[in-house]
């Protein structure tokens, strides 16, 4: 059912995640095939085994679960029914799914808006301090995601840093309700996923031949115009990789809406988590996961096709 | 040495570009030091020198990619030294071509015209003219990576020339091509230059290429201009040991001179002698540095054959390289304890004659007018 | 362990800090990230010698060299395990979890080797349903006689065949008495529009519905779809007044006055009270839930006998009292009363008066009918 999409996706995301077009890679693989299929297979074996064990197998288990049902005490009863899927696609979840995609899309655009100048600065003006800047981008990773999200609670709550400052400066009388709102969830997502955007953008911009920008200037393009017509189009692979690396986990995130969200910021990740833990309906949770995955794969397939071909072809 | 610019060029409007006291420093390192250049309109002008001599930095300052630390760059009489590249009527052909990989040939070539906001049909017409000029009219829709190196080179050329710049800058544009293609492109470039009449500034480290193509050449070394002149001037009358050694090959003699009324002589005993004509300025330096081109020297079997008034040295053949039209010898000169290169035309080799062989003793002889007196180092 | 916690709490920033009780610790353990890992294992160095001891009922049986104890985080006194290790020469490998769901998921996914786990009442029913617990030989646990009678005949396990209670508490309303001027004795407070945006509800499915069902006068264990639907509608009305659904952060929010009224567990609210004196706890007149965490032995426990010896040790009056004195939850051990500090014993928040006790109900595992609650909860959250 999703076969063509999956194939397209595999190629597209592989190239996207590599940060550049996969031309040389696929050519290299092609050469390996041509020369010595056996050697290539041997080289691939550990990776294939790893993927099989830790990706294909668990996915297979989830797929089997998704056609089953919930036992009296929350165990999985195996079977073959599409009930879970029809429940998964019930109109009940439509607002939740739309909200998840909306929040993730806004967060992706915000990380792009912030990550691009940051990555550009590091790649072009970083000089000898490039590595220091990159480490600074990654430093937040050294702390648990939960702690980083918690610290936003401290910043945003009514007696938090922001409200205290605004009140001290006499800008507001009453504390603003910043926490437990769509605003705080999107903020948390944007903050949490910013490095996932910055790093592939950096990789893409770093590889960019600087003489191309000079050539654009030389041909009369101002700095802005050179950015729009040369730098950005040539960093499309980084933009694709970055947006996917942010959007996909952001859609499925449940920690941020759980901690920073309010009663009306439920995201699809929370729903899936609830099925696996609180409701102990693994079969339904599996079906929801698979449905989300299918929607994402399909979306990504069209996204990469559109963005990828418009600017690269 | 910087004042070597021939005074025949007036400071008139036939000067397309003028560099005045241009210096570029990168931190403590001085890449280019107080360069003065005057390049005539329509000229094919080369900046020649070894890598690191400052020729590319000079070109980049003219293009606007680097800002001079000091000095002025006058393009059509206006100082552009502090203008960004996109405000200068100058275009560049990059060493690696720098074609935009995401645009096809047509869009690459039209990039500059589009920025000038010309009407679409005019852009299309000029782009197709430019592509026809470089014989790529049928490749307009190709992507750069679908073209060979030579074709990419020509696209880069068309992309720059289509803008009709005052000056076209070429940064070692043929460096990446193989020898045969390179030769062909040299001729094509020369041909295009003649047709468009635009001033070309050509950066190269290949002296043969510079000699083949240029109207005039500035030889650069260590951030300064050693000499500016036509290929012939540079070859026949090098003004420094560096130029003499960098352009072609030269044999060098440094020694004390004894002067009489008409000439000077470096005496080396046993009939060996180097005769020096009195320089035009009439000076008679006590010691000199001379250079002699290898092809000016003849080899003789005995000293008796040498006419008086000719320079003569005795040497032993070390190496013989037969090149068909010519034969290249290197000979050790005991009296100078130095190896000389000699290039003999093979016109005299008849069926009963043979080439010189290694170990043979030979007399090197040449007319004193072939001696070039160089300023001694430190002068 | 305590010292380590302190350092990590500093990392977890001001306001997330303070001594913690079992439930409140749940996500904060996660927040501190390393906490569970860092303090999870107390590989205390007891004697590795095999000791022989006479069990009360049965004959002489060899004790294992070590037992594996899987408990809630920060839910034990500092000296409980070291004293046991010293006396019995059995090493106790101590590991922590932070929710019943995690515990069950871990056991179901095949984690084996634990000798003692501490699930909550309704979870014991679930585990019995899944057949992953084994019967306890009460001959080895004579101290079970020290328990209050109601813990000897708890509905989920009458006669303590599978479970020996550890600690217990109630669910109610935590509120800030400086901000909330009304008298808090009813679940109606959670629907009071005057406090819109300052109210939090727990996120546990059954706990959330229990509030509405109590308020409607129904049983929190009802299987009647119409009653559940009614409760759902009542909860949907409430949504616009809520700050959010949370089962952990409300402690901080009560303390920092971000939340004024919170549906929560007794010990957690008491925790917030330590940080903010204005915080009070109330068990509403309509009735509320009580819960008890109990020690159980998984089917595949390697050292069942030693686990029973440990359970018996726990219910020595002074040992049981030691735990309550440390974690501030009520002990199910009646004989321990004389050793429990009067501050705790006389605190109605920890040991409620009889009239309150009469209104407390255990949640029951409803088997297939759990689905009714799951569905209604999804509709509530998605609405």
Characteristic terms for this protein:
heterotrimer, B: 379 residues, alpha+beta, Rossmann fold, OB fold (Dihydrolipoamide Acetyltransferase, E2P), 2 domains, six-stranded mixed β-sheet, five-stranded antiparallel β-sheet, elongated, disordered N terminus, C: 383 residues, alpha/beta, D-Maltodextrin-Binding Protein, domain 2, seven-stranded mixed β-sheet, three-stranded parallel β-sheet, 16 helices, 37% helix
Structure notes:
Chain A has a single domain (3-23, 95-312), classed as Orthogonal Bundle (MetI-like fold). Chain A is built from 15 helices and 2 strands. Chain A has helices at residues 3-18, 23-35, 37-66, 83-88, 94-125, 130-138, 145-156, 161-168, 182-207, 210-218, 223-234, 236-252, 255-260, 268-276, 282-312; strands at residues 69-70, 76-77. Chain A has a two-stranded antiparallel sheet with strand order 1-2. In chain A, strand 1 and strand 2 (76-77) form a beta hairpin. Chain A is globular and about 70 Å long. Chain B has 379 residues and is an alpha+beta fold. Chain B folds into 2 domains: 2-246, Rossmann fold (3-Layer(aba) Sandwich); 251-374, Beta Barrel (OB fold (Dihydrolipoamide Acetyltransferase, E2P)). Helix content of chain B is 22%, strand content 35%. Chain B is built from 8 helices and 21 strands. Chain B has helices spanning 55-63, 105-115, 120-133, 149-161, 179-196, 207-213, 231-236, 241-246, and strands at residues 15-26, 29-40, 44-48, 70-75, 78-79, 90-93, 167-171, 199-204, 216-221, 224-229, 251-256, 258-259, 263-269, 272-277, 287-292, 298-300, 311-322, 326-333, 338-345, 361-366, 372-374. In chain B, the strands form 5 sheets. In chain B, strands 6-7-8-3-9-10 form a 6-stranded mixed beta sheet, sandwiched between helices. Chain B has a 5-stranded antiparallel beta sheet with strand order 16-20-17-18-19, with no helix packed on it. In chain B, a hairpin with a 3-residue loop joins strand 12 (258-259) and strand 13. In chain B, helix 2 (105-115) packs across helix 3 (120-133), helix 2 (105-115) runs parallel beside helix 4 (149-161) and helix 3 crosses helix 4 (149-161). The longest helix of chain B has 18 residues, at 179-196. Chain B is elongated, with a radius of gyration of 25 Å. Chain C has 383 residues and is an alpha/beta fold. Chain C folds into 2 domains: 2-168 and 291-345, Periplasmic binding protein-like II (D-Maltodextrin-Binding Protein, domain 2); 170-290 and 353-382, 3-Layer(aba) Sandwich (D-Maltodextrin-Binding Protein, domain 2), CATH 3.40.190. In chain C, the strands form 4 sheets. In chain C, strands 7, 8, 9, 10, 11, 12 and 14 form a 7-stranded mixed beta sheet that branches. Chain C contains 16 helices and 14 strands. Chain C has helices at residues 2-11, 25-31, 34-40, 80-88, 100-108, 121-129, 149-152, 205-216, 225-239, 250-255, 266-275, 304-314, 317-327, 342-345, 354-357, 370-382; strands at 52-54, 60-62, 66-72, 91-97, 116-117, 133-134, 164-176, 199-201, 242-245, 261-265, 279-282, 288-295, 297-298, 360-362. Chains A and B meet through helix 10 and helix 11 of A and strand 6 and helix 2 of B.
């Amino acid at each position: 059912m999703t076969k063509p999409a999956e194939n397209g996706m595999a190629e597209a995301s592989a190239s996207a995640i590599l940060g550049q077009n996969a031309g040389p890679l696929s050519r290299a693989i092609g050469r390996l095939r041509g020369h010595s299929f056996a050697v290539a297979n041997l080289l691939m074996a550990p990776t294939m085994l790893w993927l099989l064990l830790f990706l294909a197998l668990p996915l297979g288990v989830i797929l089997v679960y998704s056609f089953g049902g919930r036992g009296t005490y929350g165990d999985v009863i195996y079977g073959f029914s599409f009930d879970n899927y029809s429940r998964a696609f019930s109109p009940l979840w439509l607002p939740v799914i739309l909200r998840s995609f909306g929040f993730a899309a806004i967060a992706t655009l915000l990380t792009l808006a912030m990550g691009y100048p940051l990555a550009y600065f590091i790649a072009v003006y970083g000089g000898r301090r490039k590595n220091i800047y990159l480490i600074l981008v990654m430093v937040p990773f050294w702390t648990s995601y939960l702690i980083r999200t918690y610290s936003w609670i401290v910043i945003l709550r009514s007696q938090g840093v922001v409200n205290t400052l605004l009140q001290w400066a006499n800008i507001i009388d009453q504390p603003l309700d910043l926490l437990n709102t769509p605003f705080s969830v999107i903020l948390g997502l944007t903050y949490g996923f910013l490095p996932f955007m910055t790093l592939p953008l950096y990789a893409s911009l770093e590889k960019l031949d600087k003489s191309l920008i000079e050539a654009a200037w030389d041909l009369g393009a101002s700095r802005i115009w050179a950015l729009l017509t040369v730098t950005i189009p040539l960093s499309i692979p980084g933009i694709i990789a970055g947006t996917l690396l942010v959007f996909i986990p952001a859609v499925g995130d449940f920690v941020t809406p759980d901690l920073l969200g309010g009663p009306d910021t439920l995201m699809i990740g929370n729903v899936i988590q609830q099925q696996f833990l609180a409701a102990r309906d693994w079969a339904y949770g599996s079906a929801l996961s698979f449905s989300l995955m299918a929607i994402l794969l399909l979306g990504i397939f069209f996204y990469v096709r559109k963005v990828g071909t418009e600017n690269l072809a | 040495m910087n004042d070597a610019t021939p005074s025949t060029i007036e400071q008139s409007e036939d000067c397309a570009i003028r560099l005045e006291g241009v210096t570029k420093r990168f931190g403590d390192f001085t890449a280019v030091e107080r360069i003065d250049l005057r390049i005539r309109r329509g000229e094919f002008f080369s900046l020649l020198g070894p890598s690191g001599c400052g020729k590319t930095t000079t070109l980049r300052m003219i293009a606007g990619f680097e800002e001079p630390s000091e000095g002025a760059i006058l393009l059509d009489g206006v100082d552009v030294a502090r203008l960004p590249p996109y405000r200068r009527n100058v275009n560049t052909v990059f060493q690696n071509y720098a074609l935009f990989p995401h645009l096809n040939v047509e869009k690459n070539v039209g990039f500059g015209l589009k920025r000038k906001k010309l009407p679409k049909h005019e852009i299309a017409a000029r782009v197709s003219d430019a592509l026809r000029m470089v014989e790529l009219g049928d490749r307009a829709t190709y992507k750069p990576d679908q073209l060979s190196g030579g074709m990419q080179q020509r696209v880069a050329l068309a992309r720059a020339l289509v803008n009709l710049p005052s000056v076209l800058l070429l940064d070692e544009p043929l460096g990446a091509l193989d020898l045969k293609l390179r030769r062909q492109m040299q001729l094509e470039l020369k041909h295009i230059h003649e047709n468009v009449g635009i001033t070309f500034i050509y950066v190269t480290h290949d002296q043969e290429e510079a000699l083949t193509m240029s109207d005039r050449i500035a030889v650069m070394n260590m951030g300064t201009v050693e000499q500016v002149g036509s290929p012939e001037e540079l070859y026949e009358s090098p003004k420094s040991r560096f130029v003499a050694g960098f352009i072609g090959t030269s044999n060098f003699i440094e020694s004390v001179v004894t002067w009489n009324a008409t000439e000077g002589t470096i005496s080396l005993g046993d009939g060996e002698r180097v005769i020096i004509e009195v320089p035009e300025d009439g000076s008679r330096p006590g010691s000199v540095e001379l250079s002699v081109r290898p092809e000016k020297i003849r080899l003789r079997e005995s000293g008796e054959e040498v006419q008086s008034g000719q320079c003569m040295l005795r040497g032993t053949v070390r190496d013989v390289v037969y090149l068909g039209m010519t034969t290249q010898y290197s000979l050790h000169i005991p009296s100078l304890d130095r190896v000389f290169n000699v290039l003999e035309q093979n016109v005299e080799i008849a069926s009963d004659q043979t080439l010189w062989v290694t170990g043979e003793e030979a007399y090197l002889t040449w007319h004193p007018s072939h001696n070039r007196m160089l300023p001694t180092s430190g002068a | 362990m305590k010292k380590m916690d302190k350092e990590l709490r500093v990392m977890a920033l001001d306001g997330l800090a303070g001594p913690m009780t079992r439930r409140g610790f749940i996500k904060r353990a996660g927040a501190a990230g390393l906490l569970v890992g860092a303090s999870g294992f107390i590989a205390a160095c007891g004697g590795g010698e095999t000791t022989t001891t006479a069990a009360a009922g049965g004959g002489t049986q060899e004790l294992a060299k070590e037992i594996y104890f899987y408990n809630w985080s920060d839910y034990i006194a500092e000296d409980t395990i070291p004293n046991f290790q010293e006396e019995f020469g059995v090493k106790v490998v101590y590991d922590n979890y932070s929710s019943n769901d995690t515990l069950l998921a871990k056991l179901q996914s095949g984690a084996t080797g634990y000798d003692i786990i501490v699930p909550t009442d309704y979870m014991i029913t679930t585990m019995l349903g899944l057949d992953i617990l084994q019967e306890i030989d009460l001959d080895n646990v004579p101290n079970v006689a020290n328990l209050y009678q109601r813990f000897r005949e708890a509905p989920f396990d009458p006669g303590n065949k599978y479970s020996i209670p550890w600690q217990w508490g109630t669910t109610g309303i935590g509120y800030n008495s400086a901000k909330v001027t009304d008298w808090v004795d009813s679940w109606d407070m959670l629907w009071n529009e005057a406090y819109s945006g300052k109210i939090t509800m727990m996120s546990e499915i059954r706990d959330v519905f229990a509030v509405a069902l109590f308020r409607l006068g129904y049983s929190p264990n009802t299987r009647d779809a119409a009653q559940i639907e009614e409760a759902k509608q009542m909860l949907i009305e409430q949504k616009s007044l809520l700050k959010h659904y949370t089962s952990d952060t409300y402690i901080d929010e009560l303390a920092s006055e971000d939340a004024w009224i919170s549906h929560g567990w007794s010990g957690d609210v008491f925790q917030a009270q330590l940080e903010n004196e204005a915080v009070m706890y109330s068990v509403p007149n309509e009735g509320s839930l009580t819960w008890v965490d109990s020690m159980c032995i998984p089917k595949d426990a390697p050292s069942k006998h030693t686990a029973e010896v440990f359970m018996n040790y726990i219910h020595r009056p002074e040992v049981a009292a030691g735990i309550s004195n440390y974690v501030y939850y009520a002990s199910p051990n009646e004989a321990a009363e004389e050793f429990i500090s009067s501050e705790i014993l006389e605190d109605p928040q920890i040991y409620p008066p009889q009239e309150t006790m009469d209104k407390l109900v255990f949640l029951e595992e409803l088997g297939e009918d759990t689905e009714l609650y799951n569905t209604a909860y999804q509709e509530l959250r998605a609405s």
